[in-house]
């Protein structure tokens, strides 16, 4: 019997087959109810996490578990790294799987907001219709990045070279790899003050809950725009609603499934708010890249005996005997 992999939501088919060809055994594939997690996680040597959360109470019941492989970028959505580290469970993720696709989605949301595409599409189908509205030109506009990771950089590249936008950004830590077309500012507040469009790219960690709030929106230029392709937890939705309802912000967009975060559903009442259901990471190419990374990392750790390349919980890791 091979090492057991539990994938409550499977990766791309060729990746599943590649792991099977290496001798791994799949259990509970596609079974992701709470009862399924309780049944299959304790049997697994490896878990592939795509949409489910694996808390410490469940991890305590998993004596064989050696690795959790996160299919995407937001490992914070699936586990607490320290919980896994203390149990000797490797955590890896896929930082380069979906950044191109999400960046393209961010470009699409920017265009739809600034050019009122969704509003026009909705209103022309009603008896009253809609008259053309004024908009800004993107050429020469300033886009502000909060967080300057792979997605933000890809988005900035497309908007700078493709649309002629000026790009400013803020990152808490020094980074000598920032592309030359991103002008780094000294504070997040300066990004809010200078940008015509603020784009959020900060990890959705609990310590950042509600960090984007009324104070931030008040700093923004009247008639500016806000885009969130990061995580809902970062934004105070009541404050965003007020900024949009008052007209201080011309528009906002969020790639958030509000069925999972119902406290933000009132944003859907607003004509100047665009919503996609946490869908910007989905493309055939991104799922294949993320899946290939899962295969590579699992084989590296479980067959080659090496730590993962994208090792999340190195600090405090306690190897199992």
Q: Judging by the overall fold, what is the CATH architecture of the largest domain?
A: 3-Layer(aba) Sandwich
Instruction: Trace the largest sheet across and list its strands.
Output: 8-7-6-9-10-11-12
Query: Distance between the terminal alpha carbons, to the nearest Å?
Result: 22 Å
- Gross morphology: elongated
Structural class determined from secondary elements:
alpha/beta
CA radius of gyration is: 21 Å
Count of beta strands: 12
Oligomer state equals: single chain
Discrete helix count: 11
CATH level 1 name of the largest domain: Alpha Beta
What is the average of the pLDDT values? 96
The helicity comes to 25-40%
Topology-level CATH name of the largest domain: Rossmann fold
The main pleated sheet reads as: 7 strands, parallel
Question: Keywords for this structure?
Answer:
alpha/beta; Rossmann fold; 7-stranded parallel sheet; elongated
In short:
With 321 residues, the protein is an alpha/beta fold. It has helices at 13-21, 34-40, 56-59, 81-86, 99-114, 117-123, 150-163, 188-194, 214-219, 237-245, 284-302; strands spanning 4-6, 25-27, 46-49, 67-70, 90-92, 142-146, 166-170, 182-184, 197-200, 224-228, 249-255, 273-276.
């Amino acid at each position: 019997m091979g090492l057991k992999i539990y994938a409550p939501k499977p990766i791309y088919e060729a990746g599943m087959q590649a792991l099977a060809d290496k001798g791994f055994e799949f259990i509970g594939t596609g079974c992701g109810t709470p009862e399924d997690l309780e049944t299959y996680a304790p049997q697994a040597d490896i878990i592939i996490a795509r949409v489910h959360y694996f808390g410490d109470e469940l991890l305590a019941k998993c004596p064989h578990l050696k690795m959790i492989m996160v299919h995407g970028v937001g490992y914070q959505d699936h586990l607490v790294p320290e919980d896994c580290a203390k149990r000797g469970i490797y955590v890896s993720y896929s930082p380069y799987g979906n950044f191109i696709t999400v960046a393209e989605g961010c470009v699409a949301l920017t265009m739809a907001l600034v050019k009122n595409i969704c509003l026009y599409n909705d209103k022309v189908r009603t008896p009253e219709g809609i008259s053309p509205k004024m908009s800004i030109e993107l050429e020469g506009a300033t886009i502000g990045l909060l967080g300057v990771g792979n997605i933000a950089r890809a988005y900035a590249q497309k908007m700078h070279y493709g649309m002629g936008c000026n790009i400013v950004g803020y990152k808490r830590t020094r980074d000598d790899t920032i592309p030359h077309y991103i002008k780094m500012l000294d504070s997040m507040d300066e990004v809010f003050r200078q940008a015509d469009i603020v784009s959020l790219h900060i990890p959705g960690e609990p310590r950042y809950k509600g960090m984007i709030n009324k104070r931030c929106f008040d700093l923004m230029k009247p008639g500016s725009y806000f885009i969130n392709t990061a995580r809902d937890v970062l934004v105070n939705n009541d404050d965003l609603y007020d900024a949009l309802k008052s007209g201080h912000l011309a528009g906002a967009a969020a790639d958030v499934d509000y069925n999972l975060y119902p406290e933000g559903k009132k944003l859907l009442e607003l004509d100047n708010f665009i919503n996609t259901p946490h869908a910007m990471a989905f493309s055939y190419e991104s799922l294949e890249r993320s899946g290939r990374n899962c295969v590579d990392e699992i084989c590296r750790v479980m067959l080659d005996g090496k730590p993962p390349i994208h090792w999340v919980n190195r600090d405090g890791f306690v190897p199992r005997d």
